[in-house]
Amino acid sequence: MTCYFRHMNVLFEKAGVTVTKENKKDIDRAIHSIVGVEYKNCSATWKEIKKEIAENEENFVKKLKRELAKS
To answer: Does position 53 have pLDDT exceeding 90, yes or no?
Structure first.
């Protein structure tokens, strides 16, 4: 779980997200939901994240903000 978080610090900053021990799982679930990958499938999730940010990083950040606002 969250094996890709270390690569996403800049995206988290852009989204105004501070990752804590308490919210890490919720953030992880939100990201899995955004990219449409089953929860806890870390490598497939990271692969989809990389695709999405390569296509449109700003849109991914917006999706992340929106998804996290739901929780």
So the answer is: yes
Beta strand segments in the chain, E: none
The tokens for 37 are 């990958």
Token pair, residue 22, equals 């308490």
41 secondary structure, DSSP code? -
Say what the pTM is.
0.91
* pLDDT tens-digit readout, 11-50: 999 999 999 999 999 999 999 999 999 998 999 999 999 9
Contacts for 40 with CB less than 8 Å, ≥ 6 apart: 1, 32
Task: Give CA–CA dist 47/69, Å, rounded.
Answer: 24
Nearest residue to 34 (alpha-carbon basis) of 52, 21, 8: 52
Q: Is 6 helix (H, G, I), strand (E, B) or coil?
A: helix
